[in-house]
Structure prediction request, 78 residues.
Amino acid sequence: MTISVYPQHEEPAAAPEGKRPKTHPYDFSILRSLRKAQGFTIADIAQASGISTAVISRIERNQAVPELDTLSRLGKAF
Prediction:
């Protein structure tokens, strides 16, 4: 499976009522789908990658944009 983190070239849709709009053009929610499909918890990925559960959760919810090093560590954990 290939995961692309390149921005889409279309305008993001308006955020649903009560939700914050994305503040960056990347969508990292695919990480949550991938993690769940493989049966991992956030704690499993945190332990394997050395990244805190809070940071992983924020990345999965598109509330944080990870550095390249962080993405590399997450990729190795999967």
About this structure: The mean pLDDT is 80. The two ends are 12 Å apart (CA to CA). The helical segments are 29-37, 42-49, 53-60, 68-77.
